[in-house]
Design brief:
The protein is mainly β. It has a single domain, classed as Jelly Rolls, CATH 2.60.120. Helix content is 6%, strand content 49%. It has 1 helix and 12 strands. The strands form 2 sheets. The chain has an 8-stranded antiparallel β-sheet with strand order 1-12-3-8-9-10-5-6, with no helix packed on it. A hairpin with an 8-residue loop joins strand 8 and strand 9. It is globular. The relative contact order is 0.33.
Protein backbone atom coordinates (compact mmCIF):
# COMPACT_ATOMS: atom_id res chain seq x y z
CA UNK A 1 0.00 0.00 0.00
CA UNK A 2 2.76 2.46 0.95
CA UNK A 3 4.53 1.80 -2.37
CA UNK A 4 1.31 2.70 -4.21
CA UNK A 5 0.97 5.98 -2.30
CA UNK A 6 4.62 6.88 -2.87
CA UNK A 7 4.30 6.03 -6.56
CA UNK A 8 1.33 8.36 -6.98
CA UNK A 9 2.79 11.25 -4.97
CA UNK A 10 6.47 11.09 -5.93
CA UNK A 11 6.24 13.23 -9.10
CA UNK A 12 4.77 16.04 -6.97
CA UNK A 13 7.09 15.72 -3.98
CA UNK A 14 10.66 15.13 -5.13
CA UNK A 15 11.49 14.09 -8.68
CA UNK A 16 14.72 12.17 -9.07
CA UNK A 17 17.85 14.23 -9.65
CA UNK A 18 18.04 13.16 -13.30
CA UNK A 19 14.61 14.74 -13.82
CA UNK A 20 16.07 18.26 -13.59
CA UNK A 21 17.57 20.03 -16.62
CA UNK A 22 19.33 23.37 -16.37
CA UNK A 23 17.64 26.04 -18.52
CA UNK A 24 19.49 29.21 -17.47
CA UNK A 25 21.55 30.72 -14.65
CA UNK A 26 21.95 34.44 -13.94
CA UNK A 27 24.61 35.86 -11.62
CA UNK A 28 24.30 39.54 -10.69
CA UNK A 29 27.37 41.57 -11.56
CA UNK A 30 28.99 44.67 -10.11
CA UNK A 31 26.51 47.43 -9.33
CA UNK A 32 23.58 45.07 -8.75
CA UNK A 33 20.45 44.53 -10.84
CA UNK A 34 16.89 45.76 -10.48
CA UNK A 35 15.39 42.55 -11.90
CA UNK A 36 16.23 39.02 -12.99
CA UNK A 37 14.28 37.86 -16.03
CA UNK A 38 13.90 34.38 -17.47
CA UNK A 39 12.17 34.58 -20.84
CA UNK A 40 11.43 32.29 -23.79
CA UNK A 41 10.96 29.42 -21.34
CA UNK A 42 10.52 26.17 -23.28
CA UNK A 43 7.22 24.33 -22.86
CA UNK A 44 8.86 20.91 -22.82
CA UNK A 45 8.76 20.30 -19.04
CA UNK A 46 6.08 19.41 -16.52
CA UNK A 47 7.24 21.86 -13.81
CA UNK A 48 9.91 24.52 -13.30
CA UNK A 49 12.20 25.15 -10.36
CA UNK A 50 14.24 28.22 -9.41
CA UNK A 51 17.10 27.90 -6.92
CA UNK A 52 18.59 31.12 -5.62
CA UNK A 53 21.07 32.74 -3.29
CA UNK A 54 20.40 36.47 -3.06
CA UNK A 55 20.95 39.69 -1.16
CA UNK A 56 19.36 43.12 -1.53
CA UNK A 57 20.98 46.56 -1.55
CA UNK A 58 18.34 48.46 0.43
CA UNK A 59 19.27 49.85 3.84
CA UNK A 60 17.54 47.18 5.95
CA UNK A 61 18.33 43.75 7.40
CA UNK A 62 16.08 42.07 4.83
CA UNK A 63 13.76 42.80 1.94
CA UNK A 64 11.07 40.92 0.11
CA UNK A 65 11.71 39.01 -3.09
CA UNK A 66 8.85 39.49 -5.55
CA UNK A 67 7.88 37.35 -8.53
CA UNK A 68 5.80 38.21 -11.62
CA UNK A 69 4.75 36.10 -14.61
CA UNK A 70 4.37 37.14 -18.26
CA UNK A 71 4.70 40.87 -17.41
CA UNK A 72 1.49 40.69 -15.33
CA UNK A 73 1.61 43.32 -12.57
CA UNK A 74 -2.19 43.52 -12.15
CA UNK A 75 -4.09 42.28 -9.09
CA UNK A 76 -3.89 38.58 -10.01
CA UNK A 77 -1.69 37.17 -7.22
CA UNK A 78 -2.24 35.81 -3.72
CA UNK A 79 -0.07 33.94 -1.23
CA UNK A 80 -0.03 32.22 2.16
CA UNK A 81 2.95 31.54 4.38
CA UNK A 82 4.16 29.75 7.47
CA UNK A 83 7.13 31.48 9.09
CA UNK A 84 9.55 31.21 11.97
CA UNK A 85 12.24 33.63 13.09
CA UNK A 86 13.81 31.96 16.12
CA UNK A 87 11.32 33.40 18.60
CA UNK A 88 8.02 33.54 16.72
CA UNK A 89 6.11 31.03 14.64
CA UNK A 90 3.08 32.11 12.67
CA UNK A 91 1.13 32.25 9.47
CA UNK A 92 -0.54 34.86 7.33
CA UNK A 93 -1.93 35.59 3.91
CA UNK A 94 -0.85 38.16 1.35
CA UNK A 95 -3.56 39.23 -1.00
CA UNK A 96 -6.52 37.21 0.23
CA UNK A 97 -8.10 39.24 -2.49
CA UNK A 98 -5.63 39.25 -5.37
CA UNK A 99 -2.87 41.85 -5.27
CA UNK A 100 -0.53 43.24 -7.88
CA UNK A 101 2.60 41.85 -6.23
CA UNK A 102 3.49 38.73 -4.36
CA UNK A 103 6.36 37.79 -2.12
CA UNK A 104 8.13 34.59 -2.95
CA UNK A 105 10.59 35.03 -0.10
CA UNK A 106 12.78 37.33 1.95
CA UNK A 107 16.45 37.95 1.32
CA UNK A 108 19.08 39.63 3.48
CA UNK A 109 19.81 43.26 2.70
CA UNK A 110 22.55 45.86 3.17
CA UNK A 111 22.52 46.22 6.97
CA UNK A 112 22.51 42.46 7.63
CA UNK A 113 25.77 40.70 8.42
CA UNK A 114 28.25 41.32 5.58
CA UNK A 115 28.27 38.57 2.95
CA UNK A 116 25.13 36.87 4.36
CA UNK A 117 22.69 35.86 1.62
CA UNK A 118 19.15 34.49 1.66
CA UNK A 119 18.56 31.16 -0.07
CA UNK A 120 15.49 29.49 -1.49
CA UNK A 121 13.85 27.02 -3.83
CA UNK A 122 10.76 27.98 -5.84
CA UNK A 123 8.65 25.33 -7.59
CA UNK A 124 6.29 26.39 -10.38
CA UNK A 125 3.84 23.54 -10.79
CA UNK A 126 2.08 22.76 -14.10
CA UNK A 127 3.51 26.02 -15.54
CA UNK A 128 2.33 25.30 -19.10
CA UNK A 129 -1.15 23.94 -18.31
CA UNK A 130 -3.68 26.36 -19.84
CA UNK A 131 -6.63 24.83 -17.98
CA UNK A 132 -5.65 25.90 -14.45
CA UNK A 133 -4.44 28.85 -12.40
CA UNK A 134 -0.75 28.48 -11.59
CA UNK A 135 0.43 27.26 -8.18
CA UNK A 136 3.86 28.11 -6.82
CA UNK A 137 5.49 26.85 -3.63
CA UNK A 138 8.66 28.17 -2.09
CA UNK A 139 10.91 27.36 0.82
CA UNK A 140 13.39 30.02 1.79
CA UNK A 141 15.29 31.55 4.64
CA UNK A 142 18.21 33.65 5.74
CA UNK A 143 20.48 33.96 8.74
CA UNK A 144 21.61 37.28 10.13
CA UNK A 145 24.24 36.08 12.60
CA UNK A 146 21.89 34.43 15.06
CA UNK A 147 18.63 35.95 13.92
CA UNK A 148 16.87 35.37 10.65
CA UNK A 149 13.82 33.65 9.32
CA UNK A 150 12.48 30.66 7.46
CA UNK A 151 9.32 30.66 5.34
CA UNK A 152 7.21 28.12 3.52
CA UNK A 153 4.86 29.76 1.02
CA UNK A 154 2.16 28.84 -1.43
CA UNK A 155 1.33 31.32 -4.15
CA UNK A 156 -1.35 31.52 -6.77
CA UNK A 157 -1.30 33.36 -10.09
CA UNK A 158 -4.87 33.67 -11.25
CA UNK A 159 -4.23 33.11 -14.93
CA UNK A 160 -4.63 30.14 -17.22
CA UNK A 161 -1.84 31.39 -19.49
CA UNK A 162 1.27 29.25 -19.78
CA UNK A 163 4.22 30.86 -17.98
CA UNK A 164 6.73 32.00 -20.58
CA UNK A 165 8.47 34.81 -18.65
CA UNK A 166 9.46 35.06 -14.99
CA UNK A 167 10.66 38.29 -13.37
CA UNK A 168 12.20 38.39 -9.88
CA UNK A 169 13.04 41.62 -8.06
CA UNK A 170 13.79 42.97 -4.62
CA UNK A 171 10.90 44.78 -2.96
CA UNK A 172 13.09 47.85 -2.51
CA UNK A 173 16.53 48.60 -3.88
CA UNK A 174 18.35 46.20 -6.18
CA UNK A 175 19.59 42.64 -6.06
CA UNK A 176 23.20 42.77 -4.89
CA UNK A 177 26.33 41.60 -6.68
CA UNK A 178 26.90 37.81 -6.49
CA UNK A 179 23.18 37.04 -6.16
CA UNK A 180 22.47 34.02 -8.35
CA UNK A 181 19.26 32.54 -9.78
CA UNK A 182 19.15 29.20 -11.61
CA UNK A 183 16.11 27.99 -13.58
CA UNK A 184 15.54 24.26 -14.06
CA UNK A 185 12.99 22.29 -16.04
CA UNK A 186 11.48 19.28 -14.29
CA UNK A 187 10.50 16.38 -16.55
Amino acid sequence: MLNNVVGVLSPYIAPSTNSYESIATVTVGSGGSSTITFSSIPSTYTHLQIRYIARGTTSATNTGLWIYFNSDTAANYSAHQLYADGSTVGSNAYGGNPTSSTYVGYITAATATASAFGVGVIDLLEYKNTNIYKTVRSLEGNDKNGSGNMNLRSLNWRSTSAISTIVLQAETGNLAQYSQFALYGVK
